[in-house]
Amino acid sequence: MYRFTLSLKARRLPVAAGVVAAFGSIWLTCKDQLYYSNSYGSLLWQYFVPSFLKTGSAPNIPGKDSSNPQSSRKLPHVEIRRNEKFVPVNFGVVSHYESNNLASNEPIEDRNAEYRVLDGLLFGVFDGHSGWQCAEEVMNRLPFYFAFSLASKHGIRDPKELDKIFSRVGQLAGTQVARTSAKDILGPKAHEFVENGNLVNTGIDQQLRSAYSLLDNDIVYEALPEVNGYDHEKIMKGLSGACAITAYVQGNDLYVANSGDCRAVLGSKTPDGGWLATPLSLDQNAHNHDETDRVQLEHPGEEFIIWNGRLLGHLQPFRAFGDVIFKWDSQLHKEFLNNIYGRVVMPPHVYRTPPYLTAEPVVTHHSLESEDKFLVIATDGLWDMMSSNAAVQCVGELLDSGDLSHYDQDENAVQFNGASQLIQEALGGDDDIKVNKLLNAPKHIRRAVRDDITITVVYFTER
């Protein structure tokens, strides 16, 4: 039965060319069982982490819910600060944002991007699994699919008109997407949507759902061998998968669209000067009763639909882009997937009524008020090691301190970065031994002690 728990990302399926190490198999087999235990952290460190990592205090392991993060006000480790960004925006209610990522996988499978989309701003974090390819595809194309959904409300279907709409989509920082024409960006399913004269004529929440679903339909379709002529790159975009969370800010309206187990948390100032954490998304996994009820209703009577806390015993998130293994029909499994993997990927008695996975997001709306100061969106690599409340307290304390400047070891002036500070706290705060051991964990066990972490902190103007 344990064949259902093999994974590359220490929680999901292997890529076609990959081989899962024995340690990874053992880790996966036991991870969910340990997760339900209150002593998850101590069990993990006792059985899976080599003795050199046991010295000193243990890190803030998943399941630990500290509402009082260590407040060292110490500049984060130089390795943590390597990829940090501070980007002034000054658009509407958004003053600026900060971002950072820390890799566990090589290469990192997370992605993040920030776009201006028509009259609003879109901030996205994308958590890849079984490879980085799907996460990168979603990062590059989703903002345009969202713009397309917004435009369709007004009946815009002409390619030239769509090109004008797409010209109003641009990244706030970093390399611009090379493709900007509707012909290049929109896939066959989106073009079919246009040709059929469909309209997304409801609110922004439905337009976000439409954008996610249309893009996923195209990724899954474009991965078909008979469609792409056995193009390895396109096949890998479908074989790999990605959880995605985006926050769209338009005026005082904040919309969060979540597909998977990334998370968005709003930080607000309370009347007594404290900080309040308000989750604007729920992790879509076996711990979410709405999600378990949904998949069981969609596939009644299937005993393996949720097994060992995973979808069909394999996948931890219950919503995701790509992952064609959970979406293609049984015939495609037999003719294509089983040949790639060299085995039966899903036994017929388990894989009975596909598709089992959707990328359609759950969308929440929040009207921003003067007390709302920032939004943290991050992949589960952060939330595995830090609670939502602890994250808000960490960033809030930075804001409360006033002076965010500091000097590094070379006496250079450095600005404190909320995303970097969150990573530092997640890895151990001012416990240098703990932080260094987690940062420098050898490749063969690194993924067992920490995941890729990607964070964006969006700051709102004083109102």
TrEMBL record:
GO-annotated cellular components: mitochondrion
Keyword Translocase on entry: no
Transmembrane segments: none
Alphabetical list of Pfam families matching this protein: PP2C
Entry keyword set: Pyruvate
PROSITE patterns xref list: PPM_2
InterPro entries: PP2C, PPM-type-like_dom_sf, PPM-type_phosphatase-like_dom
Superkingdom per UniProt: Eukaryota
PANTHER family membership: GM14286P, PROTEIN PHOSPHATASE 2C
Full protein name: Pyruvate dehydrogenase [acetyl-transferring]-phosphatase 2, mitochondrial-like
Species of origin: Paramuricea clavata
